[in-house]
Fold these 2 entries.
Entry 1:
Amino acid sequence: MLALGAAMPALAQTVAADPATTATTAAAAAPAPALPPGARTYSVPLSRLSGQSALPLRGVDGINGLGFSARRDQQVIGARVNLDYSYSPALLPDLSHLKVLLNGEVAGSVALPKEAAATPTHQTVELPVPALADYNRLDVQLIGHYTLGCEDPVHSSLWADVAGRSTLELTVMPVDLPNDLALLPVPFFDSRDIRQLVLPIVLGRTPDTARLESAGVLASWFGALAGYRGAKFDAHLQDLPATGNAVVLLQPGDTVAGLTTPTIDGPSVAMQTNPRDPHGKLLLVMGRDAKELKQAAAALALGSEALSGPQARITRLDTPRPRKPFDAPNWLRSDRPVAFGELVPTRELNVSGHRPPPVQVNLRVPPGLFGWHSDGVPVDLVYRYSPRPGAKQSVMEMMAGNQLIRSFALHEGPGVYNRLTGVPVSEGQARVMVPTYLLPPQTALQFNYVYEYAKLGECQNSILDNVRSAIDPGSTIDISGLPKYAAMPDLSLFADAGFPFTRMADLSETAVVMPEGAGVSDFSSYLTLLGVMGQATGYPATGVTVTQSGQVAAQRDKDLLVLASGDNQPLLAQWGDALPSGFNGKERRFSLSGWVDGVASWLGNDPRDRKRQADIQLAFSSGGVSATLAGLQSPLQSGRSAVVVSGTSADGLASAVQALLTSRDTESKADNPQDRIGGSLTVISGKEAYTLQDEQNYYVGSLPTWLGLQWFFARHPLTLVGALLLSALVIAVLLYLSLRARAQRRLGS
């Protein structure tokens, strides 16, 4: 789980520290003992394990920690934590220290000398291997005191911070697992491993479009399993990776170096040892033809739980029910309210302490949620807390994306409402309307309990561990009342949720257009991109179509995902001026939005209907590696979308795909290129991404008739004025004719 790459020195010697508080530390000059054959040492930042940029410790016994585990094909033989920390200069060194606990047992303690206070400090603590379990808890506790007399247990001087760059190191030996499909997805994906999934896929030959579709099903499945970790796939043609695990696609006649191909008598799946690595495994996906190969891939992605033994032949695969728009398993349901208990385990909705960590409910909201002229998304909230006598300022703050929505007072005793309704004082209920602009495709609701500490007087203050808080799992969020209607192109929706391709979770309305003469790197980019789609939806891309530029006309009814690495994509030349960028093999061309067009029009266009005409043309040639993401309405059919992912070379295409991968390694979203992808044209250079054009000129989705009319006239007020004038003129003419006819009848009588 905790492997991060190159091996690091293992199990350094320990020395004694301050006799008052024994610290287990690494001796700087001591040589590290040699690792046993086959052993490796991995490290992972604590920020990645905890999801926090730092571990704050507050109060006389502030504690914070994280969970970790090891892969099932590894045995831990050594463990230690490298702490980077700082602490208050007011702490008394004879009475204060940091205590490191592993699964509730003390693993070591770290002295806090006065001379090192308030400066970054490093210390290594060895962890006892016998105390390790399948799932482990590592905590750091501050035992802090600032005076020899009576003290305030929550005094502001009682603080320490463990930096997120601190690392946990594990030395592991490989464990040989049996060739049993019942283990799937282990060892190819292990949920205990929080690193990015890197998995080779051996295609068996230079693939045609049908084989790429089968490989895409598998890549999207593993991408869905990887989730927040992200997944990267390295394509191989006819060679196995030298170490580790791999997926292999085979049909009769395929030859893979070093691999003895079993008899293929139908769609089948098998697991065997990697002949190049006795500790690695191969997952063989086989079929006698392209149809059977895709059937085997789909069976693996949709029903791996039913497989067992070293090999299984697929005798039947029922066709999955057709997917509906916006029904991806990862997304909030749009047909009914969704309970928090469906989104988060109940234990994660409960916290304890006066300053507990926020309760967090992660959300994946369907892209294009249309909240114009709406009150927002209703959240029916039920929360519980421990009333604190004498604490009048206790609150619970509800936030979305770290922005405050509403605060709730946590009353110390029963009020009029409680007496009238019988609702206990320890429970609160409310309906909160969350503005839709606070609900992008990836966000979270946070509930932060802040209890006032009631001070009784000098030498009478103490902290009792009896404060409990919870968000009821029956609390709901309901987006069923809002339509889906998105202004396009919008590459931020593509980066966040794979939209518009993920509108159908199985990608049944998506066609991927491969470059001409694609190479291994292009295949890797395609597979990784399909993994990104699976990560967004939580469902394998069983309906994706792969095609070439010459056959793209047959896919006019689908959204097009166009890949290019250099000048090997004819569509870039054929579509010409429809593209906001182009590449002819020697020169890149960009259409840039002007400054003047960024000014809002007096006509009152909605901010979501941004349209800046491209009035600057820029062309240049360069030998550097760069990539672009471009969105546009499909030139083949209105209402359909096309996204071009292109690079000046295969490496450029790979960098564009890499920018779309999410990773918990990033401690600040400001450092994540994904958060700067948007508009209709984004250029990626290295780790930087720049939006050069933001022109939205069509919509995806639909609106109810009356809301659609309101939206149309809101964006075209002059049309509304003209319609009103025309209506008034028609009414005047009809009224004139009616009065004239009445006058003629009266004169005639």
Entry 2:
Amino acid sequence: MLEALRSTLLVAASSLPVVFDIDEDLVAVGSPEDLAQVVHGLVSNASKYAPGSPIDVSAARDADHILVFVEDRGPGVARGKRDLIFERGWRASLEETEGYGLGLSIARDLITRAGGDLWVTPRPGGGAKFVVSLPRWQGLMSIDGSVTPGATTDLSYNASERTNTATLQEEERREGIKRLGGAT
């Protein structure tokens, strides 16, 4: 799934300062094309609000989800507007940015339809950090790339790096997800 995303980002990186770190072994439920469209839209938005600044795109997994992060170094999103920005037609500034205020609403709809979620938090050091969360595929992928439904294994999971994932509340997930191997 993330292979389509990597291809999209390679095209974006040719014209934008995009830095990406994505493990191709991550497999999520949903359409690869929809995920690529959503992340491309998030990267495009980041370039509007932080022109010329690096945009970081990375992915990680937790026990049940694949998480894709798009981080910019722009002005960020005020706490009171973090849900508002996903409403159809809402724009941060009518004078300063192009568009119709539909992109984030459509992005959230696409991700929600796949059983996931999309939200924004502050980026440490300034800017915005958009998080796409999709259910992790609970199958086994063979060497040739075919997937065996129902087989469950996670070859990269290290229990010592995660603590009590099953008890995380939704708000905790939204405010600070810890990535395997380090902080977000």
